Amino acid sequence: MKPPVLIAVCVLLVASLACGIPAPAAVVDQPTAPPTRTLPEKSAPVAVESVSQYQVTEPLTVRDAPCITGEPVGYLDTGTVVRVTGKARTCADGGVWLELDGGGWVNSEYLR
C-alpha cells in the first residue's frame, strides 16, 4: 500500500474503534463434531400410517400412558383386533406406542 492509503486505513480503523464499532474478527475454520443422536427422555410424537385397525400378535398389556412406565389398565389376548386413534409416541427405550380408540396405549411391536 502507498503511505497515504495506509494512513487513511489506519485513521478509519482508529475512528471506528473510537465510535464503538468493533474491528472485524479473523475467521478461522475449525472442525466441528458431528451431531449426536439422543433418545428423548419422555415420549415424542411420531407419524403413523392411516391404517386404524391392527391385530395383537402376542398377549399385550394396555397402559394408561405410552412407555413401559405407564400403569397397566388392561390386557389383550393374541388375535384381538384393535382400533387406534392415529396418535403415536416413541419412548426412550426406542419403542413406538399407539393410542387405542377406546383409551390406553400399546407397544406397536406386538401389532400387525
Task: Please explain how this structure is put together.
The protein has 112 residues and is of the alpha+beta class. The protein has a domain at 44-110: SH3 type barrels (Roll), CATH 2.30.30.40. 14% of the residues lie in helices and 29% in strands. The protein is built from 1 helix and 7 strands, in the order H-E-E-E-E-E-E-E. It has one helix at 3-18, and strands at residues 44-45, 53-55, 60-63, 72-76, 81-90, 96-100, 105-107. Strands 1, 2, 5, 6 and 7 form a 5-stranded antiparallel β-sheet that branches. It has a two-stranded antiparallel ribbon with strand order 3-4. Strand 6 and strand 7 (105-107) form a beta hairpin. It is elongated. The model has no long low-confidence stretch (mean pLDDT 76).
Features of the shown structure:
112 residues, single chain, SH3 type barrels, 1 helix, five-stranded antiparallel beta sheet, elongated, two-stranded antiparallel ribbon, alpha+beta
